[in-house]
Amino acid sequence: MSSPKTNSLFPLILVAVLAILYRPRPFYNAVGKAQIDRASITRWTNSSALNNERCVVHREADACEDVKIHFASSTAFLACGDPEGRTHWYPSSARYDAAGRKEESFREHLFKYDIKRKETTELKIVGLEGDLITHGIDIYTFPNEPTKIHIFAVNHARGGDSISIFSHVLGSDSVVLVKDVKHPGIYNANGVAASGPLDFFITNDHYFTAKEAFLRKLEDDYGSWTWTSNVQYCDATGTIVTCRQVSDTFPGANGLLIAGDELYVGDCRSGVARVFEIQPDRSLINTATIQLGAAADNINIIPTTRDLLVTVFPRGERRSGYIHHVHELGKGFKVPGAALRLDRSEGFKPELVYYDDGSVISYMTVAAIDPYNNVLINGGVFQYGGFAVCDLTKDVV
Prior knowledge:
This protein is mainly β. 11% of the residues lie in helices and 43% in strands. A five-stranded mixed sheet has the order 8-12-11-10-9, with no helix packed on it. Strands 1-27-26-25 form a four-stranded antiparallel sheet, with no helix packed on it.
């Protein structure tokens, strides 16, 4: 049965289809079609291999979309999952076939990697009932409790998106659920950035959700659109969760990072990263827009210089094509990946620091650098053998 929302939109959809067929450009301009020059997202397409020659792919975990490093303990935390399962249910990639995904695969994984010992451990998840389908993560450190952190994890559960907040004692092998945060403002979550023990920013990377699959298909097939994604600020410290939109809209808001009083957001459509100043009330003021030359995904910080490390898709994002090749990613089917350092001392000027043809990690969605141990850790949202650790020379970091 059609929903009232879908019925009320039918005349608009009909007009839109006719306009697309007969007068597409004026229609697109009127409804907010993003004007993206292909050259602005393919600057790094023909790059040569860089800093990928000493990488070890780790097969203890698969499909690691995001990683955050706790530098004081030399520990990387990774959000990983099931590549095959994600070809059926993974809402951020417009995969809505929950019935086609094996029931046991709806429980995905968090891992830690001890950088000094080179050991990977799956973290036991305590207190969370039901699904855990991972995406972006972040960690929050407690200034007065150096052995305790909170891990914030995007969760694409069948019942709707949430941010699952876990408590973790460094050195232990488990995480304990503190709060599973749900709110209508968390509907297409992609990245998460912790601003306190129980408050955070997120990006919603699309406008329509899994419950509006037909409209979401139109959004994807005919986009990109200027109005599809945004940043929300959520506060879960009280009994009532509050979320509100604190940015204007983007074609493709994706990874995000808090550093000091600034929030950085990568756009996976327009090939920019935007810098926001965080106000006392957590509203945002856009202070700079950085032209990356490629579509952006996750963002991390290099603590010694406070430079940013942005993972980019050097030939654009073609996710729908990659999903059909999950068993071959990194093998017979290779998707190049790159990471850019944004030099803070030069106004965030982009510099290529990593490039691989996809032999290490295909469809790379994250990279993080630990300058104290001279390693780069990267991961990919759909690859079996979900993350790699690359040794770097000291001049790189």
